């Protein structure tokens, strides 16, 4: 009698021995790997997620979510995991899946709001796409090429002295309520007419639901959702959702990068993300390090931010730009998380409370801010018109100290002080007041040629605004020439005539 061949499907099983607030320890699973998904016996438990719709930001819905937990650390005896469901029975069996956590990504994400798991949170139906791993390795050095294409911010202070390139990692750092998120939102709004287009992902980790609502409303009001995805993990969501949100946002941005497109990801903010990871680590009884943070918090953020890159033409030629946001306390940039992220990024934009109180917006301290690429990613014409701005402002700052001691100053000193005041006034921009880099070329050309010199200080900003309005409405050919990098005698003659006409009209009115 022939024997029947039987095959047994062997599954590694573990048992939950401790669980609190979504964090658990498991015994068993000897061959598990980092960031592996764990499932129950069915492989598809339901998870409660927090989302928000047009009517209610904090409406609760039940979504089918297959994984049970994600592994964050393991030892010879136990496995540490973050569970997607806050209600888990002790001694419940969990099984290996053999897979890393992934989300479905596609162009259908544009215009949508998703939660920290990558699931729709706007009530507009499901999103389909291809699976993308959330924890990917950063592109290798050989797969990258130098960052050389500008990413226009629409903010004069950034575009003229702290230029950002596509594929760069630039940190926004400062105390709360100084305009860090506003600058990030403005940069996304400014990509509306970017060529080639830039697809944006705004990650809100641990931010209040009211703030999430306001940012989404701003994007919708200014028609930015057409090229933007919002990933929102409010503070009342689970540890798992808040922990995964930045990585999910990065995976969505990488989808566009891998298609040869340009993408921008804002992480708002990594300070709250670090605190979430600290809470997770303390619940897992890990040994605390500096400021009670676990030692691997540096590698966690480094692995996330290193994924921003300008990839080579052989890899598609796309780019992923990262704008992490870090919140300081009383201007202290020497604490653990700020120093970590500063060392990872390609520069930082520092927001100063003193400048904010004086009404200078955005409140960016030029002396403490730096872009390690700078003029390398600046349009040549803008570089030509603004190359001496930082030196002018540095001289102005030193002369200000001298002016406080001297009772009288010579004409040369007075002229330099006035020029510094002019530059600061031209750099002053209100919230969501965007100025294209082409318009900035014309404004600073006018400043170089003394157009503002005989005007009162109170008139400078008004003349600048009038000049930009006339330029955009009546002289699009000048903007087109500047966009192409053209600056010959004919263009310069047009610009001179324009600025003189605007000044004459302003004075006559």
Q: What's the quick description here?
A:
This protein has 509 residues and is an alpha/beta fold.
List keywords for this structure.
single chain; 3 domains; 15 helices; Rossmann fold; 6-stranded antiparallel beta barrel; Lysin; Elongation Factor Tu (Ef-tu), domain 3; 509 residues; alpha/beta; 36% helix
Structure in words:
With 509 residues, the chain is of the alpha/beta class. The protein has 3 domains: 13-100, Elongation Factor Tu (Ef-tu), domain 3; 105-378, P-loop containing nucleotide triphosphate hydrolases (Rossmann fold, 3-Layer(aba) Sandwich), CATH 3.40.50; 385-508, Lysin, CATH 1.20.150.20. The protein has 15 helices and 19 strands. It has helices at 156-161, 180-189, 209-221, 239-258, 270-283, 297-305, 336-344, 353-357, 380-386, 389-405, 411-427, 437-448, 460-474, 476-483, 489-508; strands spanning 13-20, 23-28, 36-39, 46-50, 60-64, 69-74, 78-83, 93-100, 102-105, 113-114, 130-133, 171-174, 198-205, 228-233, 262-268, 309-310, 319-327, 347-351, 370-371. The strands form 4 sheets. Strands 10, 12, 13, 14, 15, 16, 17, 18 and 19 form a 9-stranded mixed β-sheet that branches. A 6-stranded antiparallel barrel has the order 1-2-7-6-3-8. Strands 4-5 form a two-stranded antiparallel sheet. α4 (239-258) packs across α5, α9 (380-386) runs parallel beside α12 and α13 packs across α15 (489-508). The longest helix has 20 residues, at 239-258.
